[in-house]
Specification:
0% strand, 3 helices, mainly alpha
Length: 83
């Protein structure tokens, strides 16, 4: 079985052996593919991971606040029924 260093070494040798014109073609293809994917993803109803994380934190705070308010309301209702 090959270890990770050996695999990296082989990958580097293969990469170094690729002619520059072919590397440029691969880079162009990668760039164009990224652009197409970014355009298509921007047309979808998706959010970034950062936006998702922010909304998750807002939701956690909101749920906590609702739980506190429910508890307070229960206490107020209990005190009203005692009177």
């Amino acid at each position: 079985m090959l270890n990770a260093k050996k695999i990296e070494e082989i990958a580097k040798q293969v990469t170094d052996a690729i002619p520059p014109s072919l590397k440029n073609l691969a880079n162009d293809f990668e760039d164009k593919t990224k652009n197409v994917l970014q355009r298509k993803l921007s047309q979808l109803d998706v959010v970034t991971r950062e936006e998702f994380d922010v909304q998750t934190q807002v939701l956690i705070k909101t749920r906590t606040k609702i739980a506190e308010l429910e508890s307070r309301l229960a206490e107020l209702e209990a005190s009203l029924t005692e009177k």
